[in-house]
Every structure is written in C-alpha cells, then in structure tokens.
Fold this sequence. Notes:
With 318 residues, this protein is mainly α. The chain is 72% helix and 0% strand. Mean pLDDT is 79; it is low at 1-31.
Amino acid sequence: MPEDHSHPPYAASAATASAPPPLPPLMARPAQDRTGLAIFLMCAVSFIFALQDGFSRVLGSEYPPVLIVMIRYWVFALFVIALVSRQPGGLKRAIRTKRPLTQIARGVILALEVLLMVEAFVRLGLIETHAVFAVYPLLVAALSGPVLGEKVGWRRWTAIGLGFAGIIVILNPGGGVMSLAALLPFAAAGMFALYGLLTRHVSRDDPAMVSFFWTGISGAVAITLVGIWDWQWLAPTDWIWMGCLCVCGMTSHYLMIRSYELAEASALQPFAYTQLVWVSFIGVWLFDETLRHNVVVGAAIVVAAGIFTLWRQRQKAG
C-alpha cells in the first residue's frame, strides 16, 4: 500500500489503553489556534482514563473481566449511536462503509484489546500494565511498513530498538519478577497498534463518523457473543462503580474528540503520557502497588522512544 500522509500519525499513548482511541475530528477544526485548550483537555482525559482503569481493576477483581468489558461496551454503543445521530447524515450515513470486513475486524480487535488490558490490571496491577503498554507507538511504527507500506528509516528503527530495550528493563528477566502475565499488556499493545493502523487504512475510504460507529457497534456485538455466557448480576454497590466506570468512559472519549478538533494529534500525544503519572499515583495510593526503580527507568526509555518516533513521523509527513 502506498504511503499516505493525508492523516496525522495515529494516536500513540497509554491514555487510550482502555477505551477506543481518538479518530480524526468529527467536525471541522476551527481556524483559531486553540492548542492550549486542547492540551488541557488531553491532560484531563489522561486523568479520567487513570480513574477509569482504577474502576476496571476493582470490578475485574470481583467479576469476570469479560462481563465488565461487555457492560462497558453496551453503554459505549449507546453513546456512539447518540453522538453519530447528531452528525450530518445520521445513522444512515454512518452505516454505509466501503470496507465492512475491515471495519468489523477493527471493532473485534479493539474489544479483545480492552479485555486483555482489564485482565492485566487484575494480574499485574495498573503501573506495570501501563509501563509495558507504552510500547504501543513503537509497534505502530514497526508495523506501518508491512500493513500500510510506509517506509521506516534507521532513526525510527533505532528508537524502536531502544524502546524494546526499555521493555526488557521493565520486565527485569533476571530479577525473578517476570511472569507470563506480562505478555498480556504486550499483546494488548500489539492489538492496539494493529487497530490504529487499520483505522488509518479505512480512513482513506470511510469518514471518521463511519469508523466511529463501526468501532462501537461491532465491538459491542463481538464482546456480547463471548461475555453473555458469564452474565451475573452485580452487587448493588458494584453497580455504582460500574456507573462511574461508564461515565468516565463517555466523558473521556467526548473530551478526547473535542481535543482532536482543536489541535493536531502530534501536538497532543506527548501530554497523553501523563496518564502514566496518574496511574502510578492511583496504583500506589489505592492498591498498594510498588513503583519499582526498573519500571520507572524502563518506562522513561519507552516513552522517550515513543515521543521521538512520533516526532520523526511528523517530520516525514510534513
């Protein structure tokens, strides 16, 4: 596939780990430069996503993660329908896609990615899950060649190599703390990278509204087919936590869309990494997680490599 520079680099941050990532703006971006407000919104999104992940871990430790993700997707599907209905053409326009199989695949991949992340929150904790997941933008760069036919230069390959070295530092194979559970966020990062690349691919034929609709609906259908067999009623108190989780999901996604209407993706992504700070605070304060030195150092390496990769991709697209 030929290289396509008509769209900004795909979102690359841990802030999008547990909810569908931003698509290109649903409405035209105003001419006025409002990057400052967009950055503020992205920082708010990162904080809300951290809260959302905390709720996911609480509920995922008491109920099957697939059940939690399924209920979230039901609410998200309603949110998608309501939001898309307000756009020009409404639902009739949103349903029409030139790439139905790819759109369905995107939704299924994303639903599985969210499920893996919730499982990882329970098994690894918030801090280590997000530290490993931060490798996702490097996977986007590495896969952009075979998936989209884009050329990746030696500088970005070097950054990718350094980023994977950072993952090794996080996992600390010789320290006796590495487990198979660490593969969960890594696999989720791979799925999220593939989802992002497929989103860029379908954006050549389908507008953002169409992709947004298919993300929510196909994901909800897919996760329901799997999760409905684990259905059980939540305790009354846990419905409150679930309500908070769903409100966080809708609020953060709406604010994310707004932020991408106000500024370019490449200008916002470095600030999305602030979720790592909030997640670390919540993990230590509420869940008694340990912020190990190797995790801090490794995460810093991965984030730096990811930001450099985004910068190089922006330079190539400019």
